[in-house]
From TrEMBL:
<keyword id="KW-0812">Transmembrane</keyword>
<dbReference type="Pfam" id="PF14689">
    <property type="entry name" value="SPOB_a"/>
</dbReference>
<dbReference type="InterPro" id="IPR036890">
    <property type="entry name" value="HATPase_C_sf"/>
</dbReference>
<feature type="transmembrane region" description="Helical">
    <location>
        <begin position="12"/>
        <end position="30"/>
    </location>
</feature>
<feature type="domain" description="Histidine kinase">
    <location>
        <begin position="473"/>
        <end position="577"/>
    </location>
</feature>
<keyword id="KW-0472">Membrane</keyword>
<dbReference type="InterPro" id="IPR016120">
    <property type="entry name" value="Sig_transdc_His_kin_SpoOB"/>
</dbReference>
<dbReference type="InterPro" id="IPR003594">
    <property type="entry name" value="HATPase_dom"/>
</dbReference>
<keyword id="KW-0808">Transferase</keyword>
<dbReference type="InterPro" id="IPR005467">
    <property type="entry name" value="His_kinase_dom"/>
</dbReference>
<keyword id="KW-0067">ATP-binding</keyword>
<keyword id="KW-1133">Transmembrane helix</keyword>
<keyword id="KW-0418">Kinase</keyword>
<dbReference type="InterPro" id="IPR039506">
    <property type="entry name" value="SPOB_a"/>
</dbReference>
<dbReference type="InterPro" id="IPR004358">
    <property type="entry name" value="Sig_transdc_His_kin-like_C"/>
</dbReference>
<feature type="transmembrane region" description="Helical">
    <location>
        <begin position="337"/>
        <end position="358"/>
    </location>
</feature>
<dbReference type="GO" id="GO:0005524">
    <property type="term" value="F:ATP binding"/>
</dbReference>
Amino acid sequence: MAFWRSIPLKTSLLFTIIIILLNASYYQHYKEMLIDNQKDKMNLLFKNIEINVDETATGEKFVMDLIGQNLRTAAIAAKLKLNPDISKVTNEELTELKQQIGVDDITLFAPVGDDFVGLKSSDPKELNVSSKGWDTYYEAFKQLYALKDVNVGIGQSLPYYWSGPVDTATTNPTELNIWGYYYDGTTNYIIDPFVHNKTLRKYQDLTGVDDAIDRLLKDNRHTALEIAVLNSDKLLGKKLPVKNPAPSYWFSEREVLFGSYEYRDEEEKKYAESALARNETVFYVTESNGKSVMKSFTPVHTDYLKYNASSGVPLIEITSDYTEISKALNDQLRETVGFMAICTLIVLLLMMAILWVFKRNKALALQDVQEAYVGNIETLFQSVREQRHDFINHIQTIHGLLSIKNYDELQKYTNALVGEIRVVGELINIKDPALIALMQAKLTQADSLHITCEYDFKNMEQLKLSPVRATDMIKILSNLIDNAFDATLALEEPRRKVRVTGEVSNRQLRFSVSNTGPEIPEEWREEIFASGFSTKPKGKNSGLGLHIVKQLVARYKGTVELKCGEGTTEFSIVIQF
């Protein structure tokens, strides 16, 4: 339990957030990739339908133009056979004539008031049929009867002739016909030969849109649930600017022109309008017929299927099964969660290992600190015990000098004692316990070696070091002082001098240790920091002191500078903290 408490909360939270973000990003990328793949498949289906619609439109227009031309020829032939006055033409005559000119039926339309009515016909259901409900056809009749070239935006216009696209017969909602209308002013009626669309339907069954949709659905059963070519005006409930709307059962008035459209939803109109406004494919995901589906609406630009000059372009609607994508996403989500759990476990294990190494290194560092402190404190305590012993002797000596009233000697003796007390007081003002202990120990050592050791420390109260850094600083300074002591021992006692300075300024710690004694030769100055190198006799020094100093200074990105001259050697250390 203690270990878990030792795990840094912020670090753990940061790692967890990073892992979650990475996995969420990957999951989102995977989701977008699946959706884009599905969109590409649906776009491919649309392209196939669009190509088929275009090819079908081209083929059917060619067939329709041929049928239209044949109907015009049949109308001219009928004109030559019939009386120019409609009142002198009989229905029986038209029945016989239709077989002669090769059409299914013939109707004659004549103006009655503001209407054109089928007054004579070979088909009894066509008799007395009004054209006022055929908005575009009615306008074509008026232009044709006025001997104008018919221009209503759709159909085939030839001299004295016009035919519309295939559409539903008013007299028979189950039947689709192709009508031709001829009037050259030589009769008082419009001749309307027409054929049932059996020939055209046979052509459509072989090459048309419905056949293409059936084949695409069969070949792409895992992608598409349905494909439909929709009358956008009817889907969106748009009212076209017509005076006499065609009956709702006409083919041109159907909402679904080809295919099937069973997967309806409440938002379909919004997305259909968006597709038309943006003139591009619009995708969206919705629920329909108890399924999660992806739908698309795409405008298809063609004059084919245009029954009114102001009609909107048809829309191709494709519905695909989104449950496959959802299943793949759920599988990926499970994999992502599993992957995240494994990563989290690995991170925790790594953190445990890092914490173990950190605590181990920290323990070793604290052990070094403790050993350094204990050694220096022990030296300090030994010095204090010696000074306590000396203090008793000093008191006795002062008492003796007072007893014999030798005041001159008493003054000299107390002056020396004041100097020692000042030294102790200056050390205490350093503020850093480790440094105080070190300097007290080294001063005692210098005294025993008959070395004059001077020191000068400034602003040391600004030095705020962790136990590890404090240990490293003590190692650096003690190695330099020990080397300086060793170097002065080659001199006579009065010439043995060592000076230690330290200063804290602008977050920099500066140490310098100088000593009298033999100068370091020029050729050695690059080698003295190498491990094992020593100028002392073999066995006297390990040659590691300056190497340790160099390594520790480098650890803190500090610098070591050596100066030699006039019988003095000085090492300067600069460290950022």
